[in-house]
Amino acid sequence: MTDSIEARLAARGIALPAPAAPAANYVSCVRFDSSLQISGQLPTENGKLAVAGKLGASVSLEDGQRAARLCAVNLLAQAKATTGDLETILRLLKLSVFVASDPSFTDQHKVANGASDFMVEILGEKGRHARSAIGVASLPLDAAVEIEAVFEVA
C-alpha cells in the first residue's frame, strides 16, 4: 500500500470524527516514547452512541461488528488528535475488545473482527495486531462494544 492512511479513509468515505472527551477522571490517550495507548472507545457516530445492548440478546452479530468498526474509527480519531498525523503510526500493536454479551453468547472473536478487519484495511500490514476479545456483563452507557488500543508511533 503506497497511498496514505488518510487517502484510504477518504476512498471509503470515512471522515474521522472529533475525538470523544474523557467521561471521567482519565485521559483519552497517553504517549510514552514510541507507545501510544488509547483509552477505550465506544461505538459512537455523529456524537451519539450508535449500538447499545448485549450481543446474543438485543444486538445481532452484524451490528456488533459494525459497533467494533465504529470503535476502530474512533481509535484512529484519538490517534490523529494526539499525534497530529496518522502517518506517524508505525504499527498497531494490540486491540483489547470488550463485548457486552448475553451469558450464552460465545462469538466475541467474530465481533472483534469488525475492528481487526477495518484496521488491516486502513493501515495495511501496519494494522496486523495482537488481540483480546472479552465478553463482559455490561459496558458504560449500555454500549455493545468498547475497544482500547496500543500503537507504536514515530
Automatic annotation (TrEMBL):
InterPro entries named in the record: Endoribo_LPSP/chorism_mut-like (IPR013813), RutC-like_sf (IPR035959)
Superkingdom, natural source: Bacteria
CDD domains: YjgF_YER057c_UK114_like_1
Segments forming domain Endoribonuclease L-PSP/chorismate mutase-like: 6-143
Protein name, UniProt field: Enamine deaminase RidA, house cleaning of reactive enamine intermediates, YjgF/YER057c/UK114 family
Lineage summary: Bacteria, Pseudomonadati, Pseudomonadota, Alphaproteobacteria, Hyphomicrobiales
